[in-house]
Amino acid sequence: MDRHPAPRALTPAAKRSLRIMFVAKHALADGSPHAEDGTHATYHREMRLVLEGMGFDLAIADSYRALFERPDVDFVFPLLNRGGFLNSEMMLPLLCNRHGLPYLGASPILRGLSDDKHLTKRLAVAHGLPTAPWAVFRRGAPVEEANCPVGRRFVVKPNASSASWGITAAGDWNGVRTAVRKLHAEGHDAIVEPFIDGHDIEVSVVTLNGRPLVLPTQIVMQDDPTMLRTYGEKRNLEAGQAYAIRPLLDPLVAALVESRTRLLLEEFRPFDYGRFEFRLDVETGEAQFLEVNLNCNLWSQKTIALAAAQIGWSHAQLVETILTESLERHGLLNDVVELAA
């Protein structure tokens, strides 16, 4: 595989002719870290600046309300994922579908499939991917010990969480039950998995010339592989950072998780961009499938941008490539696309 393919770029004429709406919770903020969302606010500001720097006629919004009526735009770039209610990741794509308005990323049904960790794991198992045992406890359904997987320690989290929001650790069934009931009280389904001492492996995928391109794989090296990464740590709400995102240098493990990713990604096409995650067990060396994050974090400090940099793409080139491919897929470019020099 060519590890250094050229990025895509839009012509000046295409940028002048298309009106794009960028929707993100902190799109209108100044980029300062938010009290609850942390550097997610910094990320949204950066994305706005990148799109403005491309020269688009850009409409900017920070709420779902912007799409309650059809806006006067050609295309929507949706980043309002965690909207404060269950399955909010599907809302913007649904609103766009209601208006027949093209948008970046996967369809609502595919977003729902990827955001439901239980269903995604079922899909992975169907494709033969090694996956640690788990249990889903839907809100309103019984919370019974017989359904809990065997383990020394457990991870309990919302079944549709992102950035480890709401994640907790438990040492026994009583702890699991308490954590599950707490999530149910907050309106969320819960998923329970044995905790695997190790590091996360993240495989980023974009679309290039109409085909999935697997970018160089990254590993999230934790200072202590027995510790649970938290939402506060991922959003820089806590002092210090006990992990680092680095290139995965083991060619055998990289080839393994990338081949498994290629098996699974076909179930989600077209999705424009996403991240497929595995957990590397430091005791056994096995890479267990974890989850899929379609429309993953595009911030320049996160995995997909760091992976793109390894093939020589700047952050702006990554964003423009993803956007170009999606616009072309929706038939909005005709003959105005050209390869970047």
From TrEMBL:
Tell me where the signal peptide lies: none
**Pfam family of this protein, just one?**
Dala_Dala_lig_C
Supply one GO molecular-function term: D-alanine-D-alanine ligase activity
| InterPro entries from the UniProt entry | ATP-grasp (IPR011761), ATP_grasp_subdomain_1 (IPR013815), Dala_Dala_lig_C (IPR011095)
* Keywords, sorted A to Z: ATP-binding, Ligase, Nucleotide-binding
- Domain ATP-grasp, by residue range, is 121-324
Q: Which PANTHER family match?
A: D-ALANINE--D-ALANINE LIGASE (PTHR23132), D-ALANINE--D-ALANINE LIGASE B (PTHR23132:SF23)
Q: Which family does it belong to?
A: Belongs to the D-alanine--D-alanine ligase family.
For this entry, the protein name equals Phosphoribosylglycinamide synthetase
